[in-house]
Design goal:
The structure is a homodimer. Chain A has eleven helices and eight strands. Chain A has a domain at about 5-10 and about 95-285: Aldolase class I (TIM Barrel). The first copy, chain A, starts with 10 loop residues before the first strand and ends in a 6-residue tail after the last helix. An eight-stranded parallel beta sheet of chain A has the order 1-8-7-6-5-4-3-2. Chain A is about 40% helix and about 15% strand.
């Protein structure tokens, strides 16, 4: 943990408006979502996942995706992207004018089947198609690999399998891979070794980590990944997220705490601590799940 | 963070019955305190700070110190000790039959004055006397240095000063020094560098760390200290502690979370995870401050 071995700057990828709010059972007014995203922009966030283009039958909370994206204040140099579950989502995102989308699949067969009703191979083929189509529209693709640190159904996931999926996603064109610890199963040892392994298999795509909360251990996990050379960290203002219908699913790493940890360490995030704390409070005010 | 660079075993020093409960405004029945301590013994804790021999005018919650110590189940190989503020406390502890006591002073002049109404030099002289007297009774002395990672009044504390105090305490006979992050001001960088510096100035005394909660960052701080070579970690079951009359004072690192982190990393604590979680729940049931 010598300062000279650590980066001077890191990037926060803010997922609060999407991963944080998607499971809220009561619809959050579109104006509130827009206000939240504008506050994040104002706090200095430069990469924000603002919504999800998914069928409203599955995620009714995100039914206002197009309106949210069209009405937020878009600041020069800030990337606003959205999760898409499939080609249809990509088409909606392109139609709405997005320049970047985010795909998701799980490294666990059982979890992938349960979550998006596809096998791992089917998901890979879908994301290959998404990349092909996105490229023709000049749209960039970021890709999550969920359950990278363990699966609530299968338990242990071979890190080599996660690395192989990462390499496949890179070969399709995904410019960044984010390793998701979907249900808070990582520990500082795996949070160090797994990103290190996956990164060693990537030629040009960048690698991020996406930890869910486990009583504060998520901060230690982010620290361990920093030491493994990771410089891109997913977080949700207020630590939002989690689903009451998915036992074991907890909220995301709270962006404001992660920012404070890095800034105290002398590592710049480009984010204003007081403003991101305000974003956290605002997010919690929207949310009924945030105490999970 | 390679497994071969980290210890295979660590020791938890449990402070819940003292540091966790001392600020509770409602008196906790002696039987409940005893039940808590017995549960900690049963969970596998091998070092437990069970009470404080302090004038009941200052800490009424600990007025049953002698009774608590006399009635707990004392397991072979487990050390039960108590905080003492001064020579008078030592006399009471010796009278009660303790074989180990714990002293406290702050590295910050202002905080030491406010907390125990002595200058740093006066505290050092007092602890020297305590060590002398304790030695004649065969009683071991452990010593806290509070505000080792920053002071809520003075801010920055020169780590060299902390190291000098540690060396002085060692020279008086304290067999172990514990660096306290009294109000959660540490970060992983200081949690690595300060213990490393202090340890380099100690010839034989062991060194422990004592982090208070800061939204989960305490886990990252404990991890950083582990990487700095520390193997003794103070915690309070349930994350108890904190005082409503001392703004900024938060609870201690929750023992059960720290145990889970280390055990997930393959580092043995000797403590049963399920049983220590039960201790955490029990502690919270005693406590009105535990949500601070």
């Amino acid at each position: 943990m010598n300062a000279e071995d650590l980066p001077k700057n890191v990037t926060i990828f803010e997922v609060g408006p999407r991963d944080g709010l998607q499971n809220e059972s009561e619809f959050i007014p579109t104006d509130k979502k827009i206000e939240f995203i504008n506050k994040l922009t104002d706090a200095g966030c430069r990469r924000i996942e603002v919504t999800s283009f998914v069928h409203p039958k599955w995620v009714p909370q995100m039914k206002d995706a197009k309106e949210v994206f069209s009405r937020i204040n878009k600041k020069e140099g800030v990337v606003y992207n959205a999760l898409i579950p499939n080609i249809r989502g990509l088409e909606l995102a392109i139609d709405a004018g997005l320049k970047e989308v985010v795909t998701i699949m799980s490294s666990s067969e059982s979890h992938n089947k349960k979550n998006i009703n596809m096998s791992v191979d089917e998901s890979l083929r879908e994301i290959e198609e998404i990349n092909k189509k996105a490229a023709t529209f000049g749209v960039k693709v970021r890709s999550y690999i969920a359950t990278s640190f363990g699966c609530p159904i299968e338990g242990y996931i071979d890190p080599e399998k996660v690395a192989d999926i990462g390499a496949a996603l890179e070969s399709y064109g995904s410019y960044e891979i984010s390793l998701g610890d979907t249900t808070g199963m990582a520990n500082p040892m795996s949070a160090y070794s797994i990103p290190k392994l996956v990164r060693s298999k990537l030629k040009k795509s960048s690698l991020a980590v996406h930890y869910h909360r486990f009583n504060g251990m998520e901060l230690a996990n982010n620290l361990a990944s920093l030491q493994a050379g990771i410089t891109i960290f997913d977080g949700a203002a207020g630590g939002l997220g989690g689903c009451p219908y998915a036992p074991g699913a907890t909220g995301n790493t709270a962006t404001e705490i992660m920012v404070e940890m890095f800034e105290r360490m002398g590592i710049s995030t480009g984010i204003d601590i007081e403003k991101i704390k305000d974003c956290g409070s605002f997010a919690k005010s929207l949310c009924t799940l945030c105490h999970i």
